[in-house]
Amino acid sequence: MSSALKPVFALPIRGLTWLGGQGTRAVAAVVFIAAAVPPLGALLRPYVTEAILVLLCISFMRVDLAALYGHLRRPALVATATAWTTIGVPLIVGLIAHATGLTDRAPGLALALMLQSVASPMMASPALAALMGLDATLVLITLVTATAIVPFTASLFASLFLGGMLSISPLTLGLKLLGILAASLLAATAIRWIFGADAIRRHKQPIDGFNIIILVIFASAVMGDVVSDLVAQPVFTISLAALSFAIYFTLLAVTTLLFRRIGYERALALGLMVSQRNLGLMLAATAGALPPTTWLYFAMTQFPIHLAPYMLMPIARRLAARADTSSTAAAGETAASS
C-alpha cells in the first residue's frame, strides 16, 4: 500500500479494530441496533443473501487447517456431534411438530421451526466460542463437517416433514445450499491464496469488526418489521420471542448434558454451536420467500443468538477456570510421581 493511501485506510482500520475488540458486547448490541432502526431493515432486506455469503466467506477463510487436520485424526467425537446437530435435532423437531399437530394448526411456525432445525450451525460459532474462552477448535471442525452435509440432510428432512410448505422443492433447497456454500468456500480460498493465512491472523480484530458490521446488516434485514409487529400483535410477538429463547436454551442444555463426559467446558462449546443455527443460510436458499410468521420467528431468534454468548460468559469463565485447575493439579501429580 502506498504512503499516500495509508492515511485514507488508517482511520477505518482503527475503527474496525476497536469494534472487533468489543467481543460479546458488540455481538449483543447488534440485535438492539437492528431493532431500533426499522427503515434500515427495509433498505437492507434485499441484501440478505449477499450478507450471508460474506459471513460464510469470512468464516471459511479463517479456518485453522492445522487444527482441522488434528481433529480429523480423532473422528469419533466429531462424527457424533455432527450426527446430533444435522440428524438428531431435525428428526426430533419434525416428529414433535407432527405429533402435536403444529404443521396443520400453525404451518408458518412449523416451517420456521423445521428450517431452524435443519440449518447448519452459525459460521460465527467458533469465533463466539473463542470469545467465551471455550474450545473453538472442536466447534470449528464439527461446524465444517455439519455444513458440508447440510445440503443433503436439509433436503431429506424437508421432503419428510415440510411437504408443500416450502416455495421450492427439497431438491432445489439442497442444490441452492450447496451452491451458496461452494461459492463462499471458493471465495475464501482465493482470499487466503492472495493474502496468506498469516496476514489474516495478524488482522484478526479488524476482520472481527468487519464481521460485526455484516452481522448488523443481516440482523437489520431480518428484524426490519419487529417494532411494527410488536405494536400490531404484542402478545403473539412476545410469545414467539419467548419460544425462541426456550428452544435456544433447550438445545444448549440438552447438548451440554449429552456430551458432558468430554468435560462440561467442551460440552458447553458444542451446546453453543448446536443452539446457534444458521437461519440466514435458509433465508438465502429460499430467497426470503417465506410466510410472515416464519419471518417474524426468524427475527425473534436473533435475540437469543446475539444475547446468549454475553449472558453465558460467567458460566464459561467458571468452567475454564475449573479446567485450568484440574490441568494444573494433574500436572502436579505427574511431577510428584516422577
UniProtKB/TrEMBL annotation:
Leader sequence segment: none
Keyword Mitochondrion on entry: no
Keyword vocabulary terms for this entry: Membrane, Transmembrane, Transmembrane helix
Transmembrane stretches, start-end: 26-45, 51-69, 76-97, 109-131, 138-161, 173-195, 207-224, 236-259
The keyword Kinase is annotated on this UniProt entry: no
Protein name: Na+-dependent transporter
Originating organism: Bradyrhizobium cytisi
